[in-house]
Amino acid sequence: MNDNTKPKETTLSFEKIKQDVLRPMQTHRGLELWIVFLIAVIAVCGWAYYVQLRDGLGVTGMRDYVSWGLYIANFVFFVAVSLVGMLISSILGLLKVDWIAPISRIAEIIAVAFVAVAGLVIVLDMGRPDRLLNVFIHGRFQSPILWDVTVVTTYLVISLLLLILPMIPDLAICKKEMTNASPLLKKVYSILSFGYTNTPQQHKHLHRMVRTLMVLIVPVGLAIHTVTSWLFAATLRNGWDTTIFGPYFVAGAFVAGAAGLVIAMYFFRVNYKLQDYLTDLHFDKMGKLMVAVCLVYIYFNVNEFLVPGYKMKSGDNTHLKELFLGSWAIMFWASQLLGNIIPVILMVNKRFRKPLPLMIISLFVLASAWFKRYVIVIPTMLHPHLPIQNVPDNFKHYFPTPIEIAIIVLSFALALLIMTVLAKIFPVVPICEIAEKEGIDYKIED
Amino acid sequence: MKNTFNILATIILVLSLSATVCAEGWDVPASVKKKQNPYELTKRNISSGKKIFQTTCKSCHGDPGKGNMLPLQPPPTDLGSQNFLVQTDGEIFHKIRTGKGAMPTFEKTLSDESKWMVIAYLRSLDKMKREAVVTKAVVNPEVTDVKIDIDVDSEHKKLIAELTGLKKDGKRVGLEGIELSFLVKRAFGQLDISGEEAYTNEKGQLIVQFPTDLPGDREGQANLLVKITDEDNYGPIEEKRVVSIAVPTNPKNILSERAMWGTRANAPIWIIATYVLGVIGIWGVIFLILFQLFQLSKMRVKSK
Fold this sequence. Notes:
The complex is a heterodimer of chains A (about 450) and B (about 300).
Chain A (H helix, E strand, L loop, with lengths): L1 H10 L2 H14 L1 H27 L14 H13 L1 H11 L9 H21 L9 H5 L5 H21 L3 H10 L5 H10 L7 H34 L11 H27 L8 H32 L4 H9 L4 H19 L7 H28 L19 H24 L5 H8 L8
Chain B lengths: L1 H22 L6 H4 L9 H14 L1 H4 L20 H4 L3 H10 L13 H13 L5 H7 L6 E11 L4 E10 L4 E3 L5 E6 L4 E3 L12 E5 L12 E7 L2 H4 L3 E6 L25 H35 L1
Antiparallel strand pairs in B: 1-2, 2-3, 2-6, 4-5, 4-7, 7-8
Helix pairs in contact in B: 3-7
Protein name (chain B): C-type cytochrome
Pfam families (chain B): Cytochrome_CBB3 (PF13442)
Keywords (chain B): Heme, Iron, Membrane, Metal-binding, Signal, Transmembrane, Transmembrane helix
């Protein structure tokens, strides 16, 4: 690793950083094609949502027993991935871990995109989205739902601030350098740079604000996923009725978020040609971080399943047998093995922490994390305390309909579109911060 | 060949099994067999026997003579059939007490008196002995337009019901010896306050003591229903009345207290406080940051 970083220090100059980071934003052709593709996907899947809006939730596979299906599982997944913003730029930032500098903005972009869409997924799950305001008008303080809506909104706002505030020096550069940008974009740069000229006073003032936000997002980030877990844990249902659900969800979120970050890092590194900034070292460190969070998650999984599995209380026994050996066994064990255990075994090996292998491992981890949420939500709904009797046959099973799957694809496309647009108009790697880290002096002219 | 053998084997097996079942019949001791019902077949006994029959026996055996028993194997006996009623009182008593196979034992669940009452009821269906019943019961005249009138003695909390019917000559007469049920509506179902001997006297009247400690609503009101217990007498005849002699109570509505299960207005103070203070705290800092953000551009002016 040291062989890689040493020559870099000598070759990097402020001009070079500026050019390397700003060039792909202006000249990348594939990016526009990718945006068109995403919009096409959203348009097609938007039709599925129109059908659901027109005909009601009957077009989904959800019935009286499984009233939380694919949408809620997907919501939990999106909230989980968004937590990476808090992990990287806040927790590691406050601990003054300096290798996160080039990747913290990507983490924030993921956080903003995924938490914004997470809120939207809840609206997509509503049969009557026009009644959304009732959550606020008639929401009960005792219900985790009101708390969830509140923390999701708060987390989105703080993540947005944590994306923009550390970017102000870079936006001041953009204002000057991005001469080809559209007038609208220039206006955005001009407004969001807040007249920053890197005076010592401004520098100090800005850093104090960013540090305050970094502290503030820790409780909000913990709250967003803990409250999401309370949506489940506050009910008396087998598989959800557990005291460790909050930390269990947070640990799982760190796994999913770290994997998402690695994938995004890899694509920006390759497509934006940022090999000098998103180096092998960063992938190596991210690999080690993933081993750590995966081990914590495995620890929680052991607690979550071994303790009730040892006692096999009535009710839990049906649920757990279905998970371990029954119809959910393949999904359950695949998500545990491919999403946790095998990645840890691979990632302790240095060879697998290289960019490409680590990205492939992260794809498996992320997919497993999605299926893990599915296994958390749906089996419990199918195992109520009273046996399911005398109901139409489609109440007894759940399988998402094509409409539901299309709407889920829509949510993914939307998150990717938000990420792409943010990466199109904002520098994905912090220019000034890297210059500071490298000890390069720079000036920002007004 | 093989099939023939199988069929033969099955037939032999079935026959031998059914033979054992038949041979296993009821083993009633001779002394018990001779027992006679110590209770007379009065209308009153038959009526109370019918009540027990309907709660205890009917669910399997069905209505006597109607053949609507449960489809079990072997089927429960029709207790109104003459084949069953040829047995002595003692035999039936023994069978109720011990039970066999699907027929449960009622040794502990029914008192001996109750068992004899059931037998009295069954015996009343017996074509050979029916005459005995009729002669022993009170005979009311043929009447139409049967009705119940309720009178309330608020001072002593007594309920006076009068059962009358219209004779052919247009005279209204009281009907004697008919069992009435006094039911008070409760949260779940109805409370029977009729007491032990709820039969009308020779004037057709029946006086029932209303329980002195029975809770009513805020005004002490309770819904009373008086009806003829056995519909076979004059059909379903009943009279409803709201009486104001119950104990006035102020029932506590658990939704009116502050609790986790309450409405939003009744949320516990601590949870409202946590939420409101949390939101104010976090959003206060956010707005402070936004305010500071706009000061950033002012600093440029100052520094220049």
